[in-house]
Automatic annotation (TrEMBL):
This is Acyl-CoA thioesterase 1. GO terms for biological process: acyl-CoA metabolic process; fatty acid metabolic process. Residues 231-437 form the BAAT/Acyl-CoA thioester hydrolase C-terminal domain. The active site is at S260, D352, H386. Keywords: Fatty acid metabolism, Lipid metabolism. Belongs to the C/M/P thioester hydrolase family.
Amino acid sequence: MGLQRVVPPATTNYSRSPGHPPLTVQLEMEATLSLEPSGRSCWDEPLSIAVRGLAPEQPVTLRSVLRDEKGTLFRAHARYRADNHGELDLARTPALGGSFSGLEPMGLLWAMEPDRPFWRLVKRDVQTPFVVELEVLDGHEPDGGQRLAHAVHERHFLAPGVRRVPVREGRVRATLFLPPEPGPFPGIIDLFGVGGGLLEYRASLLAGKGFAVMALAYYNYDDLPKNMETMHMEYFEEAVNYLRSHPEVKGPGIGLLGISKGGELGLAMASFLKGITAAVVINGSVAAVGNTISYKDETIPPVTILRNQVKMTKDGLKDVVDALQSPLVDKKSFIPVERSDTAFLFLVGQDDHNWKSEFYADEISKRLQAHGKEKPQIICYPAAGHYIEPPYFPLCSAGMHLLVGANITFGGEPKPHAMAQLDAWQQLQTFFHKQLGSECLHVSPKI
Ligand SMILES: CCCCCCCCCCCCCCCC(=O)SCCNC(=O)CCNC(=O)[C@H](O)C(C)(C)COP(=O)(O)OP(=O)(O)OC[C@H]1O[C@@H](n2cnc3c(N)ncnc32)[C@H](O)[C@@H]1OP(=O)(O)O
């Protein structure tokens, strides 16, 4: 359902000839809220949102809400004023304040905030959509005005025709997403970070862009280890071999995508394992952190934790950005990236407070070049934090860190972080299409 009824009557003055009093006509206009595409769309797709049938210059408030699968509500609102024709198009009209201000056609999604502190928007079951409710209220009180129009929109994580295949092969625990037939498709392994489990939403969205993407669990899932102790590269090697030999995956090499701890593991895979053509690392570390990485008879020990460097923010959160020893000091913890022939793209939030992502990317670049390897591409996003997600996920700037055991700041400002997510999503697709030799699909960079 894209649009719905409503309304109080709008009053319009029609001036007749000079000398006659104006004729006042009561027009029974219905305010409508329309979304394009209507009814449903993919989570990473931009939406056109417009309201029609308002009075000229009418002040209104737009509100959005969605409920996550654990029952937490995420909400945003913004104040607007209709134009002279009683219309409001979020692509042309700036918000006057609220959860965001200025021209933000998708602000009602990316600026959402949870009603539960330190809660992050996570999609657990990609086979169901998030249902977003939007409403238009009369006036500028986000909680007060009469409801003028209302719409319900489904945001899906599986594009039409994308296939979801659970994988339980040897030790590998994963879910493979395949684009609509026919293949073969460039293959990518997708890794999340500390917390473990099997998060599928990024892989499912990316499969909608023409890639065979395997979301790979590595701990705290099914019969995998409950905790991260030693990360054995042999497990990841099995996953790489599985994907490379899949009949719908195009060879010869595959891609890796990893965020945070998943980025660190991606780097280790690209350093130790064969068959990895391209890797995108989102805010990853070049040092082993919190656990040992091992492959055959080699081990990379974790960097030292500098507990006395944990700071407290003015909001009472821990800031751990200085709490890891430099891998230039703890040299044995530096992942041997110089062994890799993989093409790298580093996506860096310059306000990452989890760890020093920009420093790590620069050190990797220096190390690769010093060994005659290809210079990696590094894209830095000012004021973006640690959790660079697919487009329109609201910023999670603080939350429980399972390695620290306390709420920490992850950094980032909502607007620049949202812009970073949008750009990063385009950049990584372009990079993978180029490196893995597929045709570049058209993607429109709009927020
Ligand atoms: C003083 C000492 C100093 C030491 C100084 C050390 C310095 C140290 C430097 C930094 C070191 C960085 C090291 C790597 C940095 C990363 O890797 S950052 C993390 C990146 N995270 C990811 O990529 C996501 C990974 N996955 C996940 O987080 C999990 O899959 C999920 C999403 C929580 C779901 O897992 P699950 O097992 O199904 O979750 P569930 O059983 O429902 O809940 C588990 C816990 O998570 C919480 N949770 C669940 N869903 C959510 C949600 N949506 N939002 C928030 N919390 C949630 C629950 O409340 C629950 O907490 P408890 O009740 O147990 O307290």
